[in-house]
Amino acid sequence: MSLTLCPHPAATSTMHATSSPPAGRSHWPVLIVVEGVHDVAFLKAIATVWRQVDPELPDLALYERRRQIAFVPIGGGGARDIAAWALRLDALPSPRFHLHDRETPPETGRRLAALATIDRQPNRCARITSKRSLENYLHPAAIVAAGGPALALGDHVD
């Protein structure tokens, strides 16, 4: 499998594993490292919505069922946790994509530094959201339409 995640000069433009996968498998899955289980649910749900507009976008739930990707929720925490998880996962030959929340300073700076280290490695890609968390990307009208309360949300509201 090839999956273009983060084309940039320091990384390969296509992610793929170089060592042999387990018996009976033709590839290693791409690991998608996020902070928590709610991030996994959000990403799969929003991918389904986006695919209604552009069917060429990836179907994350299908990729997960086919074991082409595997979500790894690491439990939030600070940059030390992100860096520690990166080291733990380095023993696996799977390509990795890290997506973490921006949070607030000074935590944002620490996360950016940890993710920059990951992003420089081959078959690794790391990004931080432009908003405080993935949930900040939800439109208030969508929350109401789903049965939630009317909220005044900003990009950096917890």
Give the SSE layout:
Elements: E1 30-34, H1 37-53, H2 60-65, E2 69-73, H3 79-89, E3 96-100, H4 107-119, E4 124-128, H5 140-145
Parallel strand pairs: 1-2, 1-3, 3-4
Helix pairs in contact: 3-4
Strand order of the largest sheet: 2-1-3-4
End-to-end Cα distance, whole Å, is 37 Å
Total helix count? 5
Number of strands: 4
What gyration radius follows from the Cα positions, in whole Å? Answer: 16 Å
Biggest beta sheet summary: 4 strands, parallel
Shape call? flat
Protein model, in words:
The protein has 158 residues and is of the alpha/beta class. Helix content is 34%, strand content 13%. The chain has a four-stranded parallel sheet, with helices on both faces. Strand 3, helix 4 and strand 4 form a beta-alpha-beta unit. The longest helix has 17 residues. The protein is flat, with a radius of gyration of 16 Å. It starts with 29 loop residues before the first strand and ends in a 13-residue tail after the last helix.
